[in-house]
Amino acid sequence: MAWPNQNILALLGVEHPIIQAPMAGPVFGDMVVAVAEAGGLGSLPCATMGAAQIRQELTAIRQQISKPINVNFFCHRPPVADAGEEARWRAVLRPYYVEYGLDPDAPVPTSNRTPFDDEMCSLVEEFRPEIVSFHFGLPADDLLRRVKATGAKVLSSATTVREARWLEEHGCDAIIAQGFEAGGHRGNFLSDDISTQVGTFALVPQVVDAVSVPVIAAGGIADARGIVAAFALGAAAVQIGTAYLFTSQARLAPLHRAALHGASADETALTNIFTGRPARGIVNRVMRERGPMTKDAPAFPLAGGALAPLRTAAEGAGHDGFMSLWAGQSAALCQDMPAGALTGKLAAETLRILESAFSQQELNLMKLYYSPGSCAMAPHIVANEAEIPVELIRVDLASKKTEKGDDYFAVNPHGYVPTLTLDDGQTLTEASLLVQYLGDLKPETGLIPAAGTMERYRVQQALVFISTELHKSFSPFFKPGTPEDTKTANRALLGRRVEQVDRQLADRTFLTGETFTVADAYLFTILNWAKFANLDLSGFPNVQRFMAAVAARPAVQKTRQEQGLA
Q: Which of 85, 154, 230, 436 could staple 217 via S-S, CB 3.0–4.6 A?
């Protein structure tokens, strides 16, 4: 069973569409390596690390693996210290200092998280991680340009549809839809109103509908059931955090680990007490007594400084009352196991559920009869581009038998491919028709424009040209006994027709413009036959550019692999 969205796997370069969330504090390079080796995307959180520590972690990771990794940064605006604000916060905490025998007026450590800056960007340029993700929006344009210049794919978190649209407009390659259930800091950056934040399974489909880039679901997902649900709502991948806090690689204080094992969904809350910015954690003493959200906390990330001595004193006494016990709402679903084993378990159980669901629909699955490299590749490409599941049945055109030994003439009396058997048992033939039929099943993909539009007629015009002037002209080269003079004449005709195509592609990427359509799938398929006709395409630079662009598409690569041509 293959993952339902292959494009996200190609984008991230991973085997499984599972991203380990970059949780600052508990996560270091050993977890990143374990997740990557298991086929997921390991994420190194850099928000609380200095440049030297980031370099140390990345060096250790690269020494162990060459697989893609994600490096994550915060990109908030550093606050201006406010002495009055700090004094009010110290006054709120004063009774706790007295309780623990601490000097309320003693200096406290500075709580700071450095946002993504020139020094960190230089590390990205040096180590060139395959993925770079951000929290709280995106960095300044000049820094983002430098990140993209390394070839890295850029991700960031959105907590609303408006934020998702903003991220796409500013160059994100995929968007993490962070639901209200997620543990740790909220990624909101266009609004501070926490009361309007949305849950994961309300947010994901709305973001999927609003943007054209892949959407990664995050928040409250801790097992295979949650992953399958996210996929059903249109997510291409998932980001999981709290479940990885239960792994042996998570560097947690014993009190935090103990709290996780006793937590249930109604025992977490959003709080700004620990950093000055809303983050979800397990409710403890200071959250209950001061209220989880308070106007007294200094701006992010300064609130944590005055809490540090209290945390140390309470932790020494065996109490977690002043610790930031970050956790999402699905902690009760999590189990203790190594990070690699967790990644493998999540993937295997998700695929098992998906396979079971598909097996129940198997009798109604459309069947595409094909021969490797034949014109049936065109509808096969379109099915993969549109993510339409079809059952592939290989046909031996010499014996007219299917791979199951069935008589192919019983399926298609003409004996040629492709044939598409629909879920109601009806059949359709002819490549130029099948690509249109499949494209119309998923109009949102843009593979074929809407009926009645001039754009639709342009695509159909291209399909007719390919079918009558190219496809038909290649036929003699596949028929035994075709006279050489016939082959020579057809080769010359094909050269003239390809020259027409080359001229048409001079000012565009694809046949009808900058959007890939079903006509491009058909043209790519037919021009791949040039070698059988001894037709040299090297004199047609625009055609060569077109063929390279189409061949690089993930759906085309998947098709070639499924037909045994890669």
A: 230
Asked whether residue 495 is domain-assigned, the answer is: yes
Q: Domain range spanning residue 403? A: 361-562
> Do 380 and 474 fall into the same domain?
yes
DSSP per-residue string spanning 354-413: HHHHHHHTGGGSEEEEE-TTSTTHHHHHHHHHTT--EEEEEEETTTTEETTS-BGGGT-T
Tell me, what's the pLDDT at 356?
Answer: 77
Residue bearing tokens 């969330």: 21
| Claim to verify: residue 344 and residue 369 sit in the same structural domain | no
Distance in angstroms (rounded) separating the CA atoms of residues 472 and 490 = 10
My answer on whether 105 and 117 are in the same domain is no
Q: 290 with 204, same domain?
A: no
Number of domains in the chain: 3
- What gap in Å lies between CA 155 and CA 134, rounded to an integer? 6
Pull the structure tokens for residue 324: 């930031």
| Cα distance between residue 390 and residue 367, in whole Å | 5
Confidence of residue 231 (pLDDT cuts 50, 70, 90): very high
Residues 6+ apart with CB under 8 A from 367: 390, 391, 392, 393, 420, 421
- Measure CA of the first residue to CA of the last residue in the chain; give whole Å: 19
Residue 254 resides in a domain: no
Q: Is residue 258 part of a domain?
A: no
pLDDT band at residue 1, thresholds of 50, 70 and 90?
A: low
pLDDT at 74: 97
Closest Cα partner for 267 from 311, 332, 205, 317?
Answer: 332
Q: Is the dihedral of CA 221, 225, 231, 234 positive or negative?
A: negative
Residues 104 and 117 in one domain: no
d(CA 94, CA 217): 41
Say if 326 falls within a structural domain.
Answer: no
CATH of the domain at 224: 3.20.20.70
Answer yes or no: do 339 and 210 share one domain: yes
Say if residue 367 is in the same domain as residue 446. yes
Reported as a single tens digit per residue, the pLDDT across 41-88 is 999 999 999 999 999 999 999 999 999 999 999 999 888 888 899 999
CATH number assigned to the domain comprising residue 508: 3.40.30.10
Measured distance CA(222)–CA(332) in Å, rounded? 9
Sheet containing strand 43-45, strands side by side: 18-20, 237-240, 215-218, 174-178, 153-158, 131-135, 70-74, 43-45
User: Got the DSSP string for 213-259?
Assistant: S-EEEESS--SHHHHHHHHHTT-SEEEE-HHHHTSTT----HHHHHH
Assess contact for 71 and 131: CB atoms under 8 A.
Answer: yes
- 504, 511 contact by CB (below 8 A): yes
- Torsion angles phi and psi, residue 276, rounded to 5: 100, -5
- Does the pLDDT value for residue 115 go beyond 80? yes
Do 39 and 343 form a contact (C-beta atoms < 8 A)? yes
Percentage of the residues of the chain whose pLDDT score is greater than 90 = 88
pLDDT band at 363 (very low <50, low <70, confident <90, very high): very low
Q: How far apart are CA 408 and CA 557, in angstroms?
A: 27
